[in-house]
Specification:
The structure is a single chain. The chain is mainly β. It contains 3 helices and 15 strands. The chain has helices at about 140-145, 160-165, 345-350; strands at about 5-15, 25-35, 40-55, 55-70, 100-120, 125-135, 175-190, 200-210, 220-235, 240-255, 295-310, 315-330, 360-370, 375-380, 390-395. A 15-stranded antiparallel beta sheet has the order 1-2-3-4-5-6-7-8-9-10-11-12-13-14-15. The mean pLDDT is about 95.
Length: about 400
């Protein structure tokens, strides 16, 4: 729903040593090279292990390059920003362009996180360094139209991103993106029995991220706080689990640029696309990046039922059905000077005075090999048309 049909290759390798640690792996490597029919691309190499360094130090490292020819952009602060579906629907009386709510982005992410024991393997400290280089621009209409018949070409008109830049709602110093280097520290409490597909346990974390000037962050320096609590409650052993996630993320000092505001942080970075709220990893069925603010809260509830346990190629193979409900909203606004926009144009860009709760409902299938590699298929429906209609998502791993 977010990016179109995906074509490419991905794989994940798990090393268990002599097998006595199964299903807890000793090392894992995930790699993906793929392209999407809506113009996006993924190039990712991910590594995770508790055994690479001595002293029970966990190492998580990731190098990812993402290209987005038409990344969703709906403005700021959720329902404060107006969404007009007709603007991007061909044949409607209000049609402007299929990419009116889009802009181009190229994102390079390099990170290394370490986790070590405080009192036990369950209660850990976290420290890391992240480099995120983001380049943003208007949609390249000429490139998209190349080779297409005239009746299929997009009109060369300003997008919402272009209009935000022209009015000064997105400043000149941030409109083209930039490089952010930040330090990450935190505390993690984790009692899950199996990380990729837990049957019981708690996974909670408090993360503090700082992008100080001495690391080269000249135009924007800021601090972010992220608090996430996840709980997995077994209802029927090996068959039925009730799971929920509650999260908060916000700026607690300085000013973050617009291109970093949708970035969702956590302590485990296999999540390929960190965008939200909205989309396949946060609010399924809600338009991707529909909810962007300086402070956000979100929650997910899932009922996970495994209805088939069998063997496939000598490995345990499970098929499950998930029912879910997702919700989120902004609680701290990104400052917007509405006086920069002519009063007669306010209905085009602005809706409510304050954001409200964005919700969605849906169901999904899970195909799990060896209790570690999970193929997820979810379909979510937004409960408010201002958040879109719904979406189908196919990905690797559970949402949480």
């Amino acid at each position: 729903a977010d990016m179109g049909l995906q074509l490419g290759a991905l794989g994940q390798v798990f090393f268990y040593g002599d097998g006595s640690s199964w299903p807890r792996y000793k090392h894992t490597v995930y790699a993906e090279v793929s392209r999407f029919t809506k113009g996006s691309g993924v190039n990712q190499l991910f590594y995770d292990s508790k055994y690479l360094l001595p002293g029970d130090i966990r190492v998580t490292a990731d190098i990812t390059y993402l290209t987005e020819r038409a990344l969703d952009f709906y403005g700021f602060n959720g329902y404060q920003a107006a969404y007009h579906p007709g603007f991007e629907e061909e044949g409607s009386g209000d049609y402007i362009s299929r990419v009116f709510y889009r802009h181009e982005r190229k994102l390079l992410r390099i990170l290394a996180d370490l986790q070590g024991r405080i009192t036990s393997d369950r209660f850990r400290w976290l420290a890391g360094i992240h480099v995120v280089d983001i380049k943003t621009s208007s949609v390249d209409i000429e490139k998209i139209n190349r080779g297409k018949p005239e009746d299929k070409q997009l009109p060369d008109v300003p997008t919402l991103y272009d209009e935000y830049v022209s009015y000064g709602l997105i400043g000149n110093e941030e409109k083209a993106g930039g490089t952010t280097v930040y330090l990450k520290t935190g505390l993690v409490f984790d009692t899950r029995d199996n990380e990729p597909a837990p049957e019981h346990g708690i996974w909670s974390e408090v993360l503090f991220l700082t992008a100080p000037s001495f690391l080269g962050n000249r135009a924007f320096t800021f601090n972010k706080l992220a608090v996430i609590h996840r709980h997995y409650i077994p209802l029927v052993r090996k068959r039925l689990v009730f799971a929920y996630r509650l999260g908060y993320q916000g700026t607690v000092g300085g000013t973050a640029p617009f291109y970093i505001q949708p970035y969702i942080y956590n302590s485990f970075s296999l999540t390929t696309r960190p965008d939200g709220l909205g989309g396949g990893k946060t609010l399924r069925g809600v338009l991707r990046n529909r909810v962007v603010g300086d402070g956000m809260v979100y929650g997910n509830v899932e009922l996970r039922w495994v209805f088939l346990i069998t063997r496939l190629l000598g490995q345990e193979f499970l098929i499950g059905l998930h029912g879910f409900a997702d919700a989120g909203q902004t609680i701290k606004e990104i400052a917007i000077d509405r006086s920069l926009v002519p009063a007669g144009q306010h209905d085009r860009y602005f809706d409510q005075e304050r954001d409200g709760l964005h919700t969605s409902l849906g169901m999904g299938l899970r195909f799990t090999l060896d209790r570690n590699f999970i193929l997820a298929v979810d379909y979510g429906v937004a409960t408010d048309p201002r958040d879109g209609t719904g979406g189908l998502y196919i990905s690797v791993g559970n949402v949480f």
